[in-house]
Write a structure and sequence with these properties.
It is built from 12 helices and 12 strands. Helix content is about 30%, strand content about 15%. The structure holds S-adenosylmethionine and iron/sulfur cluster (SF4).
């Protein structure tokens, strides 16, 4: 199959995006993602031998591109903790037919790595930042990481040309809603695209409760009251963020309403964990172990058929079905699947 081909699932959704987690480790302990009571000293992270090698990741990515994937995002855990990640970026950047190569990071190591990532072929970067207030940020990242160092990372990414820069802010009611407006102003001034993400019930360890979700509609009205907004149309089918533009021309924001307005209908993403398990839904209950398939010596044609068949069988739409009945199902943790 040639690059540009389409492989569709049971609900007619094409395979277009691949998110690759390159490590399950992180230097933050965000309370909504890797709470330290669970991810403490006794937690057993994956040993190096269980991680997919760069060659294995690139081989799988190449097959995915031949099935229609045009965008790859590296994630984690914290992807910049994976040793020599620039080398992987260089290998993926060389894939024929790949339209976009990006990475989501907590920004802690970005100041040091932005230039080498860009030189290796990374196109853009998304940086997560939940507040500009050090105390609030510390309560969220739980390692007292200073805001200023994430901002230095963002500035280094600008200098390296990793643009347009997106900034992800998870909003958790009772914790950082007061940071919404300062973050909106910060992003407007810097020319960054800010995305507000509703706090999601990914995995089971974060003790998620619906009361802690600040619905996107409230976020939009909070900003609109101070900095008037108007809605923007979607740029492409399957765009997860709903976009709004400042009426004065000062840029745009996006809201990702995965809880209050699920967008499963156009979801075109597959997700690969660091140890090579493929999930076809962020809220997946079961993944497929591709590492043993790869290490079992499968040839490229058979690998392509296996991946295509996994996608063709896909019927997941967890967010739309979210209910009492689905709440107790075993779900993969965000730090393994990468958000
Ligand atoms: C799992 S992280 C991995 C990449 C990197 N460590 C980072 O934080 O950007 C990817 C994204 O998922 C978001 N995230 C993690 N847990 C979440 C949750 N429970 N609800 C909503 N977003 C979440 C993070 O804020 C981040 O923007
Ligand atoms: S959201 Fe990112 S930075 Fe925070 S704990 Fe999860 S993986 Fe680490």
């Amino acid at each position: 199959m040639e690059a540009g081909a389409t492989t569709s699932d049971r609900l007619g959704r094409p395979l277009r995006d691949l998110r690759i987690s390159v490590t399950d480790r992180c230097n933050f302990r965000c309370t909504y993602c890797m709470p330290r009571e669970v991810y403490g000293a006794a937690f057993r992270f994956l040993p190096q031998t269980e991680l997919l090698t760069f060659e294995e990741i690139t081989r799988l990515a190449g097959v995915a591109v031949s099935l229609g994937v045009s965008k790859i995002r590296l994630t984690g855990g914290e992807p910049l903790l994976r040793r020599d990640v620039e080398q992987l970026v260089g290998m993926l950047a060389g894939l024929d037919g790949l339209g976009d190569l990006t990475l989501t990071t907590n920004g802690s190591l970005l100041a040091a790595k932005a230039a080498s990532l860009a030189a290796a072929g990374l196109r853009r970067v998304t940086v997560s930042l939940d507040s500009l207030d050090d105390d609030v940020f510390a309560r969220l990242n739980d390692v007292s990481f200073p805001v200023a160092r994430v901002v230095e990372g963002i500035e280094a990414a600008v200098r390296a040309g990793l643009q347009p820069i997106k900034v992800n802010m998870v909003v958790r009611r009772g914790l950082n809603e007061d940071s919404v407006l300062p973050m909106a102003r910060f992003a407007r001034e810097g020319g960054y695209t800010l995305r507000f993400i509703e706090y999601m019930d990914v995995g089971h360890t974060n003790g998620w409760a619906l009361e802690e979700v600040l619905p996107s509609a409230e976020i939009v009205s909070m900003i609109d009251a101070q900095l008037p907004l108007e809605s923007l149309p979607a740029q492409y089918p399957g765009e997860v963020a709903t976009r709004w533009r400042y009426r004065d021309g000062g840029g745009e924001i996006g809201v990702i309403s995965s809880v209050t307005q699920p967008f499963c209908g156009a979801c075109s993403r597959a997700r690969l964990t660091a140890e090579g398990v493929l999930y076809t839904c962020l809220f997946g209950t079961r993944g497929s172990d591709l590492r043993s398939v790869l290490r079992g010596g499968i040839d490229d044609d058979a690998l392509r058929e296996q991946l295509a068949s996994l996608w063709r069988q896909r019927a997941d739409r967890y967010s739309e079905l979210r209910s009492e009945a689905t709440a107790a199902l075993p779900r993969v943790e965000m730090s393994r699947i990468g958000g």
